[in-house]
Amino acid sequence: MIICSVTCADNLHEAKAMARAAKYHMPYARVVICLMERTIHPAALDVPWFDEVVLAKDLGIPRFEKSIFKYGLLEAVTSIKPAFLRLLFDRYPEEMNVVFMDTDVIAYAPYDDLLFALEHHNILLSPHQLEPCTDPLGYFWVGIFNTGFLALRRSEEAMRFLEWWGHRLYSYGHYHSPFYVDQKWVDLAPALFDVTVWKHPGYNVSAWNLHEPSRRIVREENGRYWLENDIPFVCYHYSGLHGMLQYCMNKWLPDTANPLYELLRLFQEELDIMGQKELSEVPWSYDFYLDGTPIRLEDRKAYGDDYEAFESGPDPFLSRDSARRGEDGI
User: Fold this and answer.
1) What would the pLDDT profile of 249-263 be if each residue is shown by its tens digit?
2) Helices and strands in the chain: count of H runs, count of E runs
3) Is the pLDDT of residue 288 over 70?
4) Which CATH superfamily, name and number, covers 2-201?
5) In which region does residue 133 sit, left (phi positive, over 0), alpha (psi from -120 to 50) or beta (all else)?
6) For residue 288, what is the DSSP state?
7) What is the DSSP string of 207-221?
């Protein structure tokens, strides 16, 4: 099994925490990180929990610089996800299963149920919620599925899905409506591919589903956590760490004796150990032209609207002029 994630240098502290937990519970897993930077940051070197670090520019994406210039950091990182997953299947022909996790997904148990499911299913997608909620309107914006956690089995169907998804994110992986980066496209996947909705309540627990009784930890035994009916609590997605998560925990888990509060404290402590203070200040290398000039939001938008420059112009990162109608300013 391969466990993988995409990130930038300013988030490597999370990637290291994710990888450490994955290796602890699943030492047999291969952990591969894709870095959306021009070069591999020193903090990504010699990390004992990383089996490989791949640069996004080496994924084989056609006209890579042109394809990402129109995107901000979040958009660029999520847009390369299908190409990265496809590369892993190609690079490691002996591996049958690939699990993608955002860097803020932390494993608390082995993925035994998931691996068993992958013996019978090609594509496992994780819905944001398993039960109806009183305010579902937000999911018209973010989508039905959370693509921060998904799993694929080597199959023709999985390859078809990745090709389809990748084509759409190449041009339309924007944050603004109706796309919400890579997620809203995946709402269409169950109608087009052999998709299984992964409804295990112990996976991808997060702020957006803490209101569900089936997600709540009811006991801890020897370092393992359990939900009702002896269902294992397997991984938690710490999305919204600096606002939404605390709000949802206070609202849905007011008892601070709930084990999740201690897990959150330990996670935040580990992020500090992994270098959060220093790494969070690292600028994104694709936020600048090659001459060091910052790229403005309006530069990205104008380039994204200029089909002719995208098709025939030079590398838009050369200079501000090079991103305008193919005029090379160097």
Assistant:
1) 999 999 999 999 999
2) 14, 12
3) yes
4) Spore Coat Polysaccharide Biosynthesis Protein SpsA; Chain A (3.90.550.10)
5) beta
6) B
7) GGGTT-GGGS--EEE
